[in-house]
């Protein structure tokens, strides 16, 4: 349906035509943005599946090493020794822009102490447990990074899709209907003006013809 009544003038027609042109340009840009975001989102989702599988495998290996060490040295000893292990890790979080969406890049630098439990004093298998859980931690951080990116991209895809739908199903059809309304009114007005002009022309021609006959008629009577 057309927008609320717009006076059917040529200036309004030109103004609405420019608005329609901008709306179509905006639609094309937003649709291109949506497609790029969807492709990026799908690649991230696929990456999430792969990393999720890696996290599950890493955690399974870490828990297997923990159970083996606990069976060999005892759970209490492992807990006591783990409290003395330094756990200083470094995270550097930056962002990159994907079509205006800030996607995080997390750089993880783990602290890897050499033989933290010692060759003689440490519980059997403790070093293996530490190594396996650090590997799992790297996978978990990578999974958190990609899941955060998926959440941000999905939110922007949804927002962009709403704007695309608003232009495609609401604004652009309204501009087109309004332009058609103004164009029809202008054409009807032109036809009416043409009819009036033809009538005026006939009346003028008739008047000229009548005034041209009057002198001749008076000459015959004289």
Question: Keywords for this structure?
Answer:
222 residues; mainly alpha; Helix Hairpins; 2 strands
Protein described:
- It is a single chain.
- The longest helix has 96 residues.
- The protein has 222 residues and is mainly α.
- Helices cover 76% and strands 8% of the residues.
- Strand 1 and strand 2 form a beta hairpin.
- It has one domain: Helix Hairpins (Orthogonal Bundle).
Short description:
With 222 residues, this protein is mainly alpha-helical.
Uncertain regions spanning at least 5 consecutive residues: none
Kindly state the percentage of residues in helix. Answer: over 70%
Q: What is the CA-CA span between the terminal residues?
A: 72 Å
In round numbers, the mean pLDDT is 82
Tell me the fraction of residues in β-strands, as a range: 5-15%
Q: Strand arrangement, largest sheet? A: 1-2
Report the total helices: 3
Give the overall shape. rod-shaped
- Radius of gyration from the alpha-carbon trace, in angstroms: 40 Å
Structural class: mainly alpha
In total, the number of domains comes to 1
In sequence order, what are the helices and strands, one letter per element?
Answer: HHEEH
| CATH class type | Mainly Alpha
CATH topology, anyone?
Answer: Helix Hairpins
The major beta sheet can be summarized as: 2 strands, antiparallel
Task: Examine the secondary-structure arrangement and name the CATH architecture.
Answer: Orthogonal Bundle
Number of strands: 2
Topology of helices and strands:
Layout: H1 10-73, H2 75-82, E1 90-98, E2 101-109, H3 126-221
Antiparallel strand pairs: 1-2
Helix pairs in contact: 1-2, 1-3
